[in-house]
Amino acid sequence: AQSVTQLDSQVPVFEEAPVELRCNYSSSVSVYLFWYVQYPNQGLQLLLKYLSGSTLVKGINGFEAEFNKSQTSFHLRKPSVHISDTAEYFCAVSKNSGGSNYKLTFGKGTLLTVNP
Amino acid sequence: GAVVSQHPSRVICKSGTSVKIECRSLDFQATTMFWYRQFPKQSLMLMATSNEGSKATYEQGVEKDKFLINHASLTLSTLTVTSAHPEDSSFYICSARNPLSEKLFFGSGTQLSVL
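Structure tokens for the assembled complex are given below, as produced in the milestone run.
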């Protein structure tokens, strides 16, 4: 079984500051890793994903994440945040990158609040 | 715009009544849809996998007689919470998998409050 830990439930930052949202996972098998964002009153949207290859993954809206197998981490970063980045961010893992058995295990989420 | 529509966004019902939540894929035919449940400050928990034309696969601990899932068409899956009780109050989210792109799209969720 897999599990995901998002260490911070809330992260307040000022606009244009850098941010890192932390995610650690545990699994007995190889997994695929995802970050989703949920803006108020909207569905979850995929920010980025790691399936294989380069451990540094770039996503939409200037976000990137680095897969660290030895530390079982997949932290999300952005060098300079905007007010519009205020949202809930979810880290997730799956044993499958696609296919019908596409089950995601989510973390509890991190609320990123960007203040002016 | 949204590619998965979930309705209603919010519903309040009396204890003992049944509530139906709809999940529609707007731009593609979804052979597989997923239903999640989220309690405040908790993870999204997968409840069941809905497969078009066949019975849903429920996760361990989820009562299939209480959470009825119907996936009668390639664009619609419904979750019916039967004889709802206050402990069923939660945020329910659906997702649909586009078999061509293998991408997963989420609905905006339904907040169920049972009085």
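Chain B is about 0% helix and 55% strand. Chain B has a mean pLDDT of 91. Further analysis is deferred to the final report.
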